[in-house]
Write a structure and sequence with these properties.
Helices cover about 25% and strands about 10% of the residues. With about 400 residues, it is of the alpha/beta class.
Length: about 400
């Protein structure tokens, strides 16, 4: 790229063909510069990470050596002091201890009273029976061996047992009078967060929180949701993100107050038709699952505003979405869609539409009527440039992403 060409381009002295060539070269140079900058940043971050790992290992080794030295010094100090345990551990050893002491302190020509006096001055440990003529009292063995205190558990009188289908044992639940003077312990709990607990199944105690409105079970090892989930009638927000759920219970459709449902990053292959009863649902996240179809009855979710179906296995645009006229955000990125229906023009309230990384080769004319669109992602498809230009003219206020 020459400086003279740049000056001519500013002064508009280049011909139309020369101007196009200059602009193309300029874009290539700018892209190359941006990639170089990004590569330098990643290289610097990589060096910093390696530095952290290196110095972290060095610090760990140094701390380990210090700990070993401290341990060795403590052991040496203990051995220099010459500690020796002399306290008897059971009745038999205590008897042997007394006999050995008697033989050591009593010579043939020493009177008994002298032996008693020596025994008092020599022994520094607590004694059980220190005199020669006093027999060992076996009844005092409780002073040597402490009996384990075993307490028998008995539930309080004001409790009762309740049973759940998913519970392996009965649960204690407070039983209070019918008057309003005593309040239920679980009545005020409206949020329960059980994230990162390595749960393989939902704890039965969760169903005791009858007034629960938010339940978060993210980042666990759950493979399914129990049918008792329907007991949480007041639940409004349910998040089961990043688990191993393959199948959803039909009882999920009984949560009539549910507004937010996050099932992303699981292994769900199909959705139960009963979910159409979630009339108040506003936000549904099903991204990163294994869905191939969406039930047609989902068109009854009239209040749905945000629908995320990113990273699934959809090959056909779900027909039920054409009836969700209140949708404002729709994410269908990383699927296998080959075409869009004309019914997409019914989504007049859409402000964000993500169709990136599919297999689209053309766009329907109805898409040009979505005047409220602010963001449209079409990158990773094979749409003709002429049609993209028409789309830009039809939607001047929309930011259209198309990285080729």
């Amino acid at each position: 790229m020459k400086k003279e060409d740049f000056q001519k381009w500013i002064n508009e002295d280049l011909s139309e063909g020369e101007s196009e060539i200059f602009e193309k070269n300029m874009m290539e140079n700018l892209l190359e510069h941006r990639l170089q900058q990004e590569f330098k940043e990643r290289l610097q971050a990589r060096r910093v990470r390696r530095g952290y790992v290196k110095w972290g290992l060095i610090a760990l080794i140094v701390l380990s050596i210090i700990g070993i030295l401290i341990y060795v010094l403590n052991q040496k100090k203990t051995s220099d002091l010459g500690y020796q345990e002399t306290m008897p551990t059971n009745i038999q050893s205590s008897e042997m201890h007394i006999k050995n002491r008697e033989t050591a302190l009593k010579p043939d020509n020493m009177p008994i009273n002298t032996v008693k006096k020596v025994d008092k001055t020599v022994s520094t440990q607590p004694q059980i029976s220190t005199t020669i003529n006093e027999p060992f009292n076996i009844e005092n063995k409780s002073t040597l061996i402490e009996k384990p205190q075993v307490r028998k558990f008995s539930p309080p009188k004001d409790t009762e047992y309740i049973y759940l289908k998913s519970a392996s044992e009965p649960l204690l639940y407070p039983k209070y009078p019918t008057n309003n003077e005593v309040q239920d312990l679980y009545s005020d709990i409206i949020l329960k967060d059980l994230s990162k607990q390595k749960l393989t199944q939902l704890p039965p105690s969760v169903f005791l929180y009858k007034q629960l409105k938010t339940l978060i079970l993210n980042n666990n090892l759950l493979t399914n949701l129990p049918a008792e989930i329907s007991q949480l009638a007041f639940l409004e927000n349910l998040s089961v993100k990043n688990n191993k759920i393959e199948r959803l219970p039909i009882e999920l459709g009984q949560l009539k107050n549910l507004k937010i449902l996050d099932l992303s990053r699981n292994k769900v292959k199909e959705l139960p038709d009963e979910m159409r009863n979630l009339k108040d649902l506003q936000n549904l996240d099903l991204s990163t699952n294994r869905l191939t179809t969406i039930p047609f009855d989902f068109e009854e979710l009239n209040n749905l505003k945000t629908l995320n179906l990113r990273d699934n296995a959809l090959t056909i645009f779900p027909l039920c979405i054409e009836r969700m006229t209140n949708l404002t955000s729709l994410d269908l990125r990383f699927n296998r869609l080959t075409e869009l229906p004309e019914g997409i023009g019914n989504l007049m309230n859409l402000t964000s539409l993500d169709l990136g990384n599919n297999r689209l080769k053309s766009l329907p004319e109805a898409l040009f009527d979505l005047k409220k669109l602010k963001l449209l992602n079409l990158s990773g498809n094979d749409i003709p440039a002429s049609q993209m230009k028409e789309l830009e003219e039809a939607l001047p206020d929309c930011r259209i992403l198309d990285f080729r």
